[in-house]
């Protein structure tokens, strides 16, 4: 079920033209609210803020049963673990005499890439999409 982005009326699944305004409109995904607490897309987005909300969402009752929120919480945890492993590996390589100098040039690029990926994950979760990272997303989906 989707809604027209121009007039806001409900559109049938798969339809590209709104029956109410007869305009060709892009559809906006439905945001489901569990009745109490945060909407699913907001909870999924907040799971990426740090690792702490992700762990809380896995333990707190209304969110621990929600597949969407659990997926994003697990993906956040696995993303953080992979990020720490990458940084520890780079710090070890930084102590090698010649390679250490070359890693100084790589650190800002990896940091910028990780920041952009984190922003993309926040935006996709806020849009209500279950955006999967290549390896981490599969692990998160198995945990859900």
Provide an overview of this structure.
- The protein is mainly α.
- The protein folds into two domains: 1-30, no CATH class; 34-143, no CATH class.
- It is 60% helix and 6% strand.
- The protein is built from six helices and three strands; from the N terminus they run βββαααααα.
- It has a three-stranded antiparallel β-sheet with strand order 2-1-3, with no helix packed on it.
- A hairpin with a 5-residue loop joins strand 1 and strand 2 (10-11).
- The chain is elongated and about 70 Å long.
- It starts with a strand and ends with a helix.
- The model has no long low-confidence stretch (mean pLDDT 82).
Structure in a nutshell:
The protein is mainly α. It contains six helices and three strands.
Would you spell out the secondary-structure blueprint of this structure?
Layout: E1 2-4, E2 10-11, E3 27-29, H1 40-46, H2 51-59, H3 61-64, H4 67-94, H5 97-126, H6 136-143
Antiparallel strand pairs: 1-2, 1-3
Mean pLDDT: 82
- Sequence of strands across the biggest β-sheet: 2-1-3
> What is the N-to-C order of secondary-structure elements (H for helix, E for strand)?
EEEHHHHHH
**Dominant shape:** elongated
- Give the proportion of residues in helices: 55-70%
Spans with pLDDT under 50 lasting ≥5 residues? none
In whole angstroms, how far apart are the ends?
23 Å
Oligomer: single chain
Strand content: 5-15%
Work out the number of β strands: 3
Kindly provide the radius of gyration, computed on alpha-carbon positions and rounded to a whole number of angstroms: 20 Å
Task: Report on the biggest sheet.
Answer: 3 strands, antiparallel
SS field, number of helical segments: 6
């Amino acid at each position: 079920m989707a809604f027209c982005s121009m007039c806001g009326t409900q559109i049938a699944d798969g339809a590209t033209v709104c029956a109410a305004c007869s305009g060709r409109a892009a559809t906006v995904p439905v945001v489901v609210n569990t009745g109490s607490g945060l909407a699913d897309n907001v909870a999924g987005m907040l799971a990426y803020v740090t690792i702490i909300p992700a762990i809380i969402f896995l333990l707190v009752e209304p969110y621990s049963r929600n597949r969407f929120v659990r997926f994003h919480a697990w993906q956040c945890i696995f993303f953080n673990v992979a990020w720490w492993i990458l940084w520890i590996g780079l710090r070890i390589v930084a102590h090698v005499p010649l390679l250490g100098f070359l890693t100084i040039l790589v650190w800002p690029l990896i940091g910028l890439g990780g920041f952009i990926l984190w922003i993309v994950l926040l935006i996709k979760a806020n849009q209500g999409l279950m955006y999967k990272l290549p390896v981490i997303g599969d692990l998160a989906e198995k945990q859900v």
